[in-house]
Design a protein that fits this description.
single chain; 317 residues; alpha+beta; Poly(a)-polymerase, middle domain; 2 domains; seven-stranded mixed β-sheet; two-stranded antiparallel ribbon; 11 helices; 9 strands; 49% helix; NT_sf; Nucleotidyltransferase
């Protein structure tokens, strides 16, 4: 066990914790904007909305304060729109015209692959989150009641896909050690600009823990276990989306990207093995919070740690 590496990784988690007192202002701005958009959607579409789910990394408790998502997933009734494209266009048009006129902070609305991206400027800070519209499946369908169809806004080949946000959230519920490991991998990919979807990181990490004969103790040992698993399996693994078993999430990476990831992880692990201080390069603490300040606040911060790991409660409404 490496005391140094464990202590450093704990510092990384502490300085990237989204529930730090210092982050409360920005987090509150996100929540305020998200809730206003949610209210506006309910007012616009009324009973045609079955429910709106809080999704994204914050709802999964895998958020880091340098990059996090407080997204919304809107469940529309099956008969509200004739087509999924009509649904997607309707939500985009409403947010880009009607709602944008009401909120001067909203500076950009854009169509994305399955969602509508919103960018607000609040007191000089950017607040970004996505709204994903989905339509309930036909009533005679034998699928789960929370299954929805999304519109895939692809220029060359527009289509659709099924998903279930509830199942994705349930998959990670209560998995504290996995969440810490996921956060650390997110710190790496954020600081080293590696294009790797967070959902893929989550599924890979949980698979590594599930496949382990025995999960080791210590932050570094668990992180190393997950990184080695990803390195050894990324080129061949099939990862089913909990919300759609026909969706292999590992396909979000090309063959070339998988090999690049394997090489990156192999090099990282070798360098940290040779020099443990390299861990500070690959997994840096958030520079906003100097180590000395974190140490001074540790006693007060640790008293909150149990509460913060339980927040936010998963919301399905």
């Amino acid at each position: 066990m490496s005391t140094y590496k464990n202590e450093h990784l704990q510092l990384v988690l502490d300085t990237h914790n989204i529930n730090r007192d210092e982050e409360k202002g920005l987090l509150d701005k996100y929540k305020t904007k998200r809730d206003k958009v949610k209210d506006a959607l309910y007012e616009e579409y009324g009973s045609d909305i079955v429910k709106i789910i809080n999704s994204g990394s914050y709802s999964k408790c895998t958020a880091i304060n340098t990059k996090f998502d407080l997204d919304l997933c809107v469940h529309f009734k099956r008969d509200r729109f004739n087509t999924l494209k009509e649904m997607h266009d309707s939500v985009y048009n409403f947010l880009n015209s009607n709602y944008k006129k009401e909120d001067d902070d909203l500076v950009k609305v854009r169509k994305q692959k399955v969602s509508v991206g919103l960018k607000f400027s609040v007191d000089g800070e950017d607040v970004l989150f996505d709204v994903t519209p989905g339509r309930k499946l036909a009533s005679e369908s034998t699928s789960d009641e929370n299954d929805i169809k999304l519109y895939l806004n692809l220029e060359d080949d527009p289509s659709s896909k099924k998903t279930n946000i509830h199942k994705q959230l349930d998959k990670i519920t209560g998995r504290t050690n996995e969440r810490d490991t996921i956060k650390l991998i997110k710190v790496w990919k954020f600081n080293h600009d590696f294009d790797l979807k967070s959902f893929l990181v989550e599924l890979l990490t949980m698979e590594a823990f599930d496949k382990a004969e025995e999960v080791p103790r210590g932050l570094w040992a668990r992180l190393k276990m997950a990184l080695e698993f990803i390195r050894d399996n990324i080129k061949t693994i099939s990862l089913k989306d909990p919300g759609n078993s026909s969706n292999n999430v590992s396909d979000s990476l090309t063959t070339e990207a998988k090999e690049e990831l394997r090489e990156e992880l192999e090099e990282m692990l070798e360098k940290i093995e040779k020099d443990e201080k390299k861990i500070e390069y690959y997994f840096p603490a958030n520079p906003k919070y100097p180590k000395e300040e974190v140490k001074k606040s540790n006693s007060q911060y640790e008293r909150k740690s149990e509460a913060t790991t339980k927040l936010p409660p998963t919301s399905y409404a």
